[in-house]
Specification:
Layout: E1 8-11, E2 14-17, E3 23-27, H1 36-48, E4 53-58, H2 61-64, H3 85-92, H4 99-109, E5 112-117, H5 120-129, E6 134-136, H6 144-151, E7 157-160, H7 166-178, E8 184-189, H8 204-212, E9 216-220, H9 226-233, E10 238-242, H10 260-265, E11 297-300, E12 315-318, H11 329-332, E13 357-360, H12 367-375, E14 380-383, H13 389-395, E15 399-403, H14 411-416, E16 421-425, E17 433-434, H15 437-443, E18 448-454, E19 464-470, H16 479-503, E20 517-518, H17 520-529, H18 538-554
Parallel strand pairs: 3-4, 3-10, 4-5, 6-7, 7-8, 8-9, 9-10, 13-14, 13-15, 15-16, 17-20
Antiparallel strand pairs: 1-2, 11-12, 16-18, 18-19
C-alpha cells in the first residue's frame, strides 16, 4: 500500500500510519500491583525497552459496573474464573490520584502517555490532565455514547475491535466521524487472555485497511512476539502489548504480559510468522465466546416496578452484556417495563411494555407529530436505530410509523406485522420514489404531494392509505419552503386519518400510474453541474439546470 496522508494521524511530532514505523504501546494495566513506585518503574522500563508509549486505564469499579453478586456478575471461566466483576476491577484499577504523577514521569523520561477512559467522568479527568490522545477498549467500542463523547474532544483515537462485527465497527467509526473527528486508528484484537495465535486471524488487518481506509494495528494478547511481528509485516501501524516488570509479581494481568527483555526482542522475532496468518474474520471468535458476555449492555441499577418508566436513574450502560446493546440507549429511555425488575437484571426487549406504537425516525422535524401522538394518550415510543425481527417479536408493537427514517425495514419485520407498518412520504406516489422526492418532482414536472402508505419489500411501493396533491408557484417558492409545506401537509393528513389508520379500517389502494425512482447519486450528479441551495427559488434553479444541460449537449 502506497503512502497516503489520509492513512495517517499525528500524535505530538510523530506520524502514525502508512509508510511510518510501527508505533509501539506498552500497556501497564494492573501490573503496578497497587504500587505507584512500581508504576513509575514500569514507565522507565518501557522507555528503555523501546516502547513509544506507556498506556494506563482510567476507571473505578463503579464506572465499569455495579456492586452486585448475582449470576450475571460472576466470571465463570478463563484467567479470572471465580471472580466477581466489581471486586476484580477493584484489584486492577489505577488510582486516579496517581495518574497526573505518572504522566509527569512519562514526560520526564520522554515516552508518550496514553489512557483508556471507561466513562464520561474519566474523559473529563483526562482532559484536565492534558491528555493528547485516547484509547478505546474493545469492550467499550459498542458503547456509542461514550465513543461519541471521547471523539467530541477532537483528539486522535486508537480503538480496539475485539469481538466486533463489521456492522459494529462501522457504527463506531461513523460515530467518531459524526463529531467531525477523523483522527482514528483501528486495532485488530482477540479479546481472550491470553490469546491463541492460531485464532488471531491476522489477515483481517489487510482486509480492514481496504474496508475502512484507516491506519490499522494490532492489540496483541498472545504470548511472545510472533503475532506482533507478523502484524507489522502485514502493514500494522500500531502494536499494543501488555507490559510488566516480572510475571512473578501477582496481579490480574501478569500472566499474559510481556517482560522488558521480551519486549526488546519483539521487533526481531520473525520466526514462525506464517503460523500466525489467518483469513479475514469478524464477529465473535471461538476463543472470545466466554468474553462476549462482559461487553456493555443496558441493566437495571435499581428495583423497577411493573409499568415504570425507564430513566437514567434506574438503568445504565454497564458490563456485563446480557441486556440490550448500548446503541439502543436513547430508544429505550422513556419506555415502560412489562413486569417488575430487580436491581442487577438485564433490560431486554422482552421486558418492555407490549402493544406500543413505535415511531421510527432520525430527524427532529418529526418531533411535532410525535408529541401530538403523545398528547392523544397513545403509548408511543421514538426509535432511531434499526429495528430487528427479534426486537419486534419480543416487544409485540401494535403499529409502526416510519417518518424520515433512514434505515430499511427488514422483510422479516414486515412479515411479523403485515399491514401494520406505515410510511409517511413527502411525494405523490407512485411518482418520485427513493431519495429527495420533493426536489425531483419540480425538476421533472411530476405531481407534488404527500402520501401515507403501507410498507412493503420494495422501496416506497406499498399500497396507499391516503394521499393529497399540492400545487406551488415555482417563481415564489424555494425548495426549502415547499418541503416545509409538505411536512405540514403530511402531518395534517395523518391527524385527519389517524383513527382509521389506528383501527386499520382504511381500504388500501394499489399504486397505479407512471413510476419514477431516484437515488442520492442522481442528486449529486445534478449538483456537480449546477450550484444548488435549498433556499433558491425553484424557477431560478430550473433555468440554470436547463442552461447547463444545453451546454453539455453542445459540447
Amino acid at each position: 500500500m502506497g503512502e497516503k496522508d489520509h492513512l495517517k494521524i499525528k500524535i505530538g511530532n510523530r506520524l502514525i500510519g502508512s509508510g511510518e514505523p510501527a508505533y509501539l504501546i506498552a500497556e501497564m494495566s494492573a501490573n503496578h500491583a497497587g504500587s505507584i513506585e512500581r508504576a513509575k518503574e514500569i514507565i522507565h522500563a518501557a522507555k528503555e525497552s523501546g516502547a513509544d508509549c506507556i498506556k494506563i486505564q482510567t476507571y473505578t469499579p463503579d464506572t465499569l459496573t455495579i456492586d452486585c453478586h448475582n449470576k450475571y456478575f460472576q466470571v465463570n471461566n478463563g484467567t479470572w474464573e471465580g471472580e466477581n466483576l466489581y471486586s476484580l476491577y477493584g484489584k486492577a484499577y489505577t488510582p486516579w490520584e496517581w495518574q497526573p504523577q505518572l504522566k509527569a514521569e512519562a514526560d520526564k523520561v520522554g515516552i508518550d502517555f496514553l489512557s483508556t477512559p471507561f466513562d464520561n467522568t474519566a474523559v473529563d479527568f483526562l482532559e484536565d490532565m492534558g491528555l493528547e490522545f485516547y484509547k478505546i477498549a474493545s469492550f467499550e467500542m459498542i458503547d456509542l455514547p461514550l465513543v461519541e463523547y471521547v471523539a467530541s474532544k477532537g483528539k486522535p483515537i486508537i480503538m480496539s475491535t475485539g469481538m466486533a462485527t463489521l456492522e459494529e465497527i462501522r457504527e463506531a467509526v461513523e460515530t467518531v466521524y459524526h463529531t467531525g473527528n477523523r483522527q482514528l486508528v483501528l486495532l485488530k484484537c482477540s479479546s481472550a487472555y491470553p490469546a491463541d495465535p492460531a485464532q488471531m486471524y491476522l489477515r483481517t488487518i489487510t482486509d480492514m485497511q481496504k474496508r475502512f481506509d484507516l491506519p490499522i494495528g494490532l492489540s496483541d494478547h498472545s504470548m511472545g512476539s510472533m503475532s506482533a511481528v507478523t502484524a507489522v509485516a502485514l502493514g500494522a501501524s500500531v502494536i499494543e502489548k501488555h507490559f510488566c516488570l516480572s510475571r512473578e509479581i501477582e496481579n490480574p494481568d501478569a500472566s499474559f504480559s510481556m517482560t522488558p527483555e521480551e519486549y526488546k526482542q519483539m521487533v526481531q522475532d520473525i520466526r514462525n510468522v506464517e503460523a500466525a496468518l489467518g483469513t479475514p474474520t469478524y464477529g465473535v471468535e471461538k476463543q472470545e465466546e466466554s468474553s462476549r458476555v462482559f461487553r456493555r449492555s443496558i441493566f437495571a441499577v435499581k428495583d423497577i416496578p411493573a409499568g415504570a418508566e425507564l430513566t437514567e436513574e434506574n438503568i445504565r450502560i454497564i458490563r456485563p452484556g446480557y441486556g440490550i446493546k448500548p446503541k439502543y440507549w436513547k430508544d429505550v429511555l422513556g419506555m415502560r417495563t412489562d413486569h417488575a425488575m430487580e436491581r442487577g437484571t438485564p433490560i431486554t426487549f422482552d421486558a418492555l411494555e407490549k402493544g406500543s406504537i413505535l415511531f421510527l425516525t432520525n430527524n427532529t422535524n418529526t418531533d411535532g407529530l410525535y408529541r401530538w401522538l403523545k398528547e392523544q394518550g397513545e403509548q408511543v415510543y421514538r426509535v432511531e436505530n434499526k429495528v430487528t425481527a427479534q426486537m419486534i417479536a419480543q416487544m409485540k408493537p401494535s403499529l409502526m410509523i416510519s417518518f424520515n427514517y433512514r434505515h430499511m425495514i427488514p422483510q422479516e419485520v414486515l412479515e411479523l406485522m403485515p399491514g401494520r407498518v406505515i410510511n409517511l412520504h413527502t411525494s405523490y406516489l407512485p411518482y418520485n420514489r427513493g431519495s429527495s422526492p420533493n426536489f425531483f418532482s419540480f425538476l421533472e414536472d411530476t405531481p407534488k404531494g404527500v402520501t401515507i402508505h403501507l410498507m412493503s419489500a420494495g422501496l416506497d411501493e406499498g399500497d396507499i392509505l391516503c394521499q393529497r396533491e399540492l400545487h406551488f408557484d415555482e417563481e415564489k417558492e424555494t425548495f426549502a419552503s415547499t418541503y416545509e409545506a409538505l411536512l405540514q401537509e403530511i402531518e395534517k393528513l395523518f391527524r385527519e386519518n389517524w383513527q382509521q389508520i389506528r383501527e386499520g379500517s382504511i381500504l388500501p389502494v394499489k399504486q397505479a400510474g407512471p413510476v419514477t425512482y431516484h437515488r442520492m447519486k442522481d442528486l449529486d450528479a445534478i449538483r456537480e453541474k449546477v450550484d444548488f441551495d435549498w433556499n433558491m427559488k425553484i424557477g431560478d434553479f430550473k433555468r440554470a439546470y436547463e442552461k447547463a444541460m444545453r451546454k453539455d449537449e453542445n459540447s
